[in-house]
Predict the structure.
Amino acid sequence: MTAVAPLALPTLPAAFQQSNVDYLAILPLLIVFGTALIGVLVEAFASRERRHAIQVTLSVVGLLAAAASIIVAAKHQGLTMGLTDGSTNRQLFALAIDGPALFMQGTILLMGVLGVLTMAERFGGVGPDAFTPSGASTPGSAVETAAARAGALTSEVFPLTMFAIFGMMLFPTTNDLIGMFVALEVLSLPLYILSGLARRRRLLSQEASLKYFLLGAFSSAFFLFGTALLYGYAGSVYFGDLSKAIAAGPLAMNGLLLPGAFLVFVGLLFKVGAVPFHAWTPDVYQGAPTPVTGFMAACTKAAAFGAILRLAYVGLDTGRWEWTNALVLVALLTMVVGAVLSVTQTDMKRLLAYSSIAHAGFILVGVLAFDRKAVGAVLFYLVAYGFSTIAAFAIVSLVRQNGAEATHLSQWAGLGKRYPVVAAAFAFLMLAFAGIPLTSGFVSKFGVFSAAVGTGGATGTVLAVVGVLCSAITVFVYARVIVLMFFSDAPDDGVEVVTPSVSTTFSIAIGTLITLALGVLPSALLDLADRASQFVR
Amino acid sequence: MTAMSTVPWLTILGLIPLVGALVVAFVPGSAENAKRMAIGFSLVTLVVGIIAATQFDRASSKQFQLGEQHSWIPQFGVSYALGVDGIALVLILMALVLTPICLLAAWHDVPEEAGPRGGQRVKSYFALILVLETFMVGVFAATDVFLFYVFFEAMLIPVYFLIGRFGGPRRQYAAMKFLLFSLAGGLIMLVAVIALYLQGPGGSDGFLIERLTGLQMDPTTERLLFVGFFFAFAVKAPMVPFHTWLPDAATESSPATATLLVGVLDKVGTFGMIRFCLQLFPEASEWATPVVVALAVISVIYGALLAIGQTDMMRLVSYTSVSHFGFIVLGIFAFTNVGHAGSTLYMVNHGFSTAALFLFAAMLVRRRGSKRIPDFGGWQRITPALAGIFLIAGLSGLGLPGLASFVSEFTVLVGSFPTQPVAAVIATAGIILAALYILLMYKKVMTGPKPEGLVSEREHDRLDEPARRGLTAVRDLTTREKLVAAPLIAAFLVLGFLPNLALNVINPAVDQTLSHVQKAIPNLNPAGTVAEGSSK
């Protein structure tokens, strides 16, 4: 041991202390977790014919109830789930129920509803259309036939989704590194499974699942190692302690702080698909069942950015000067690589994947502005992007050729002539991704860029300029899709838009309408996001 | 600084075409019916526009009139604020006049397809033009920088669809080029818009032009902001070297789209230079003047030279516009009352004369089935009336005294001579070149021996059956085409002989704008006269 004085290491309390839990504050989390557990029971006990209907209803009702209970939780804001160390008066609370956490929870819940509704699409079949009951089998093999004959259904995707949503809600709410790690795993594991359950193009799906799992495991390991280093530095995993330790911290220990902070960020940046931790994104987005891709793109991103915000603004805020430059570099790379590589894509889902990488870069620009207004802008961005994305992927799942999804760009040629409404909705979403005024995409980009120029200093201005240049590049990509759909002639190869059920139609309509509404009248949500932008410490 | 209006005239002006667009696009019925409704809506807009113009008070001391203001996105400091000064008013009126003319000219641009939904394509064409009209009103009337930006960018979308869906063979390329050029300019401007707000007083209405006028900024910031705005406007205007998108876009789009694109939309660039570059960044504007004036003069000469070399009629007309925009920018950056007034008048006149050239040329193109000038020759013998209006349009384009453009060209040159004598002298050569490209085109298209195999309709009727063999009858002007031509030619004559109709409205606005500049640069001499003692 060197002579550096350790910060008060936690001592075991003399007597057992009961953890202090405000159950009303965590009501939304409890409802979602409870619904997920009931979902598991439904799998076991409900009859085959009714399982799908029950699962869908249960999930949607559970999510909506949880969303409604946020109003209750909002009245019980503060730290909870833990205790105050009597001797040092340190607060050891695992959860922070505050504005950003509740805002993210509400966002994830509502986007989750749309996600579940798109996953429930059956196109007249018995189970969800996008999923297979036996993900490990080869399509059309004896194993699959046997599974089908044995009555295997795919309704387990709904409890899995609920567990994932639980983890996502927990992610931006946790107030310590261990809790954050648990949330990370809870949200990831169901997603690994869901990614591998695609009914068609099974090999791609299995590859996606494996890739996501392996790389995800790596990033989790990074996160955990970073946690260990930070614990070594601060003697605590709680964000409050971490922040204080850095403020008072001895420079000699920076050898632990810097790699620790960096590794923890790697784990989180992996989840949002920031360059250079983005390699999984295109493959997983392409291979996963399309409704899962949409859900993942919207909700995982929201959850992970919520976590990044808390880490950056609460846990490591005092050590900002140490790690900001690395994150600035990541943001620049993410924007440029996402924008440039999206130009060369020929597959719609991969295109949207690179677009999501570019968007992650834009959101990072907002994160790096280090201001309350910037937090509001980031929260707004996540809502706007999430709803547009779910609607966009839902539309992708409708465009089919011989029953399978037609994701190659050339297959979309002339779609606007034969299916003007669907194509117009998709074109509108493309314009939103491009950030054209009167769409939510413009308001969100304006928000993060103005925060960056306003409080980010010279770095912020550089980031904003690179951001708009990358936007200009991505415009080309989205405009090309519109060109294909509206200005090109359709090849006569039977690409069709299948008529979806009410649930998918609802998701697409709501996603598109929110994209428009947030573009024309954004001030209500901006106001809400602004009021929800204060972290509790 | 803004005189509020009890009746929201400008909002109404913007809403009528928007409602019209929805009606035209979605109300079931025949395509013919939809076309008539589209014209109806645009005419109603024009009438309301004229009524609104009568409410405009020329003697008012406020910069903007017919004002409206509501909080829109207070978190960003954005208001929904509209208002017009004389400059904006005449440009809006020009747009309102041109829209019904273009709709009428576009009657047969899009063929009706077979099938139950065959008319839908026609309907969306007309609806898009009406949507564009809404944005045209908005962009000139916005008195909030953010709102202006919203209209500036949103306007691209209907044009993008108009070019890409209803254009010529290379329309995809042209539409994409148009969009990328404009958006690249626009996004650079976005950074400047954000930074401008941060320089200003901020608050929930911090984007209003009146709050951002006369700011004290450090010179570097002001210059950077100026460059951000000017770049977008120079792409839009278009000035050499950012002009390359225009010929493609104008040639590949339908004539009505090209007219609105060059006649109205590009004016947003020069309008923006007056409203934003000069008013908000006067010192930076003065700093940039040498470069801008040089580019303007290059535009004048280079555009004219390129026009002379064109063999495609539409391309020729679009290059003449590059030249004309050079004149307009020269007048603006001369910093004199006369130059500014001339430029504004030039914008209006150029709108009409370009519309005439594009639309009349399109009439020829439709008859011949080719845009190439060498495919024509001798057409005044078979379509004398069309040749006549084509000549008038051309003469107006080259600035013949008595027709509108002469007044504005002359005023711009007179106004820029006191401050930019060299540039004014060189630009004068542009007028000579203008005579060259117009008259050469007229000569190649209209004069010469009678074209083989073509014959005027009247002669066709006179000939008997065997003599008709191998001859195609070409109609002279139809009633619809006469209706298209009449208001344009009337505008040339009225604005040619009575330019004060417009100048009286424009002049107070010009004085207002220049007074902002003068506050920042006290030794500026907007009267354009040589101040006493300065020559010593």
